[in-house]
Amino acid sequence: MRFTSEAWYDGVREQLFSLGEIPGALWTPAGAVRTRPVIFIGHGGGEHKLGPGVVDRARRFVAEGGFAVVAVDVLGHGDRPRDEDFDRLATEEQARVETGQESAQLFADFRTLVARRTVVEWQAVLDAVQQLEHVGAGPVGYWGLSLGCGLGVPFVAADPRVRATVLGLCGDLASPEDAARITVPVEFLVQWNDERVPRDQGLALFDALGSAEKALHANPGKHGEVPAYELDSALRFFSRHLN
Amino acid sequence: MRFTSEAWYDGVREQLFSLGEIPGALWTPAGAVRTRPVIFIGHGGGEHKLGPGVVDRARRFVAEGGFAVVAVDVLGHGDRPRDEDFDRLATEEQARVETGQESAQLFADFRTLVARRTVVEWQAVLDAVQQLEHVGAGPVGYWGLSLGCGLGVPFVAADPRVRATVLGLCGDLASPEDAARITVPVEFLVQWNDERVPRDQGLALFDALGSAEKALHANPGKHGEVPAYELDSALRFFSRHLN
């Protein structure tokens, strides 16, 4: 793990790093020394580790919840080196979207390609950040919508360090068995007028989650219009389950 | 409006009253003098104004939110005088439940009988409590699940003083036009394994609400198993919209 830059904003320390070919960002409270819970943020499709939504969430989780937060670029996104398999699939899928085929299928195919690699990568990132003195090996939360949900479902199912997760804007049931293997508390977001994920698919994924404690939060609006109060809710949810 | 008893518990003043034939309860912060928002609680079927759930919610709304809270016995419930129409319908409906017919239909029929009267009664109760010096004419919130939702939908649709409402556990669409007339913020609860209200009916009622801001909160469990954290959420929701 190699740190490449460091900055402070309003009491939040931001460190950029790379782990092998994976570029990432870590946010912690300035001056942090003791072990604290980590929230892993999975960014959306076409976004990256420093997208404005990711950074906004990360700073609030750190400043208001005292968490450490980590995000990395998913294969084919942000500062990742180009990947031939990814480029080929992305080109094929863009062609499908242009011919009007369902974008939910795009997520399913994309996930098939990257999910296995992503789980391995994210587990390695967690291993590395939890060895840092200002993070430590505390409980882990996962936050991911849209692509971050599609990749998050197999990750949360696979990693027992994750104790609570916010997922949503995702209806891909290519791996309903992964959803069924999730048993930690979940807050699951659905946009009632989502133009990309059919409502029934989102509800079906919520239904498939194996967790005894799972809360569906549905709000009116399109895919990109999750109301701001859901971030307040996520912060309380993680505080309740990770502290 | 005639007050019949008064008590204090942990900083909360509880006054029982009757308005004509309607028995009610009013909770306010001890020592309250200024105008404050009122939350009207509609109790569930078979319950009454002093049911443990009603009292628990009322005390928290007062103690933690500074609200005034009022609840009254619905026709045929609690300390209400017997009513021939109600008794006849209740007997008929009990027979239907015993023969295995859908209980959602029970709520629909019940509502047809009492909704019109209830709206008039509740508006009169609001008129009366808002004339009290320790309540005043502030904004109003409405909280009602199950029967309290079935009666609350026409009430919230009819009374412009109501600025925010928590509804749910209810799928009766006998009056979808009432739901469509609701335009204030709504938090709407669905129990994912509700044995009394079919899931699709709850989702359809949420869909029919005319509000631009409406949030569906669905949790696993049966009709009576709404998780405790939804009361925390309701308290924050009312604080956000009524203060």
UniProtKB/TrEMBL annotation, chains A, B:
> Keywords assigned by UniProt?
Hydrolase
Question: Which terms does the record give in the GO molecular function aspect?
Answer: hydrolase activity
Where the record annotates domain Dienelactone hydrolase, the positions are 25-205
InterPro entries registered for this protein in UniProt:
AB_hydrolase_fold (IPR029058), Dienelactn_hydro (IPR002925), FrsA_esterase (IPR050261)
E.C. number(s) listed in UniProt: 3.1.-.-
Instruction: Please verify whether the record's keywords include Repeat.
Output: no
Name of the top EC class for this enzyme: hydrolase
Q: What family does the database annotate? A: Belongs to the AB hydrolase superfamily.
Q: What is this protein called?
A: Dienelactone hydrolase family protein
Q: Which organism is it from?
A: Kribbella deserti
Q: What is the lineage of its organism?
A: Bacteria, Bacillati, Actinomycetota, Actinomycetes, Propionibacteriales
